[in-house]
Amino acid sequence: MLEVDHLIKGDLMAPTDASQVSIQLDEDHAPETNGRMPVCRRCGFRTEETSSRHAATDGHQAKAGRWLDSQALVNRVAKARDVLGS
Ligand SMILES: [Zn+2]
User: Fold this and answer.
1) At a CB cut-off of 8 Å and minimum separation 6, what does 53 contact?
2) Per the count of CB atoms within 10 A, which of 47, 54, 69, 83 is most buried?
3) Is 19 among the domain residues?
4) Full residue range of the structural domain in which residue 69 is found
5) Does 23 fall in a domain?
């Protein structure tokens, strides 16, 4: 019973590992780096040095999740403005 409960909660929760957050950052935008540091200028999180993918660390995942939430809000506001403007 407890095990099932845990599984259901796990499904409903936001991304629980850094790789999942990195994928969401990738979906939001392509990493922009200055070529010297593996850090995205747009969101401020780490990227992989050898590929154009985000690589948020475990310590960053909560912060990255909040960043993605704020971006989602920005997008919703932008869409609302589009609707009002048309
Ligand atoms: Zn980024």
Assistant:
1) 22, 26, 31, 47
2) 54
3) yes
4) 14-85
5) yes
Q: What pLDDT score was predicted for residue 13?
A: 53
What distance in angstroms lies between residue 48's CA and the mean position of ligand 1's atoms? 11
Number of domains in the chain: 1
Q: Per residue in 2-50, pLDDT tens?
A: 555 555 454 555 546 778 899 999 999 999 998 788 999 999 999 998 8
Distance (angstroms) between ligand 1 centre and the Cα of 59 equals 16
The tokens of 63 are what? 């912060």
**Ligand 1 centroid distance, CA of 16 (Å):** 19
Identify the residue whose tokens are 């259901």. Answer: 8
Residue 8 within any structural domain of the chain: no
State the distance from the centre of ligand 1 to the C-alpha of 73, rounded, in angstroms: 17
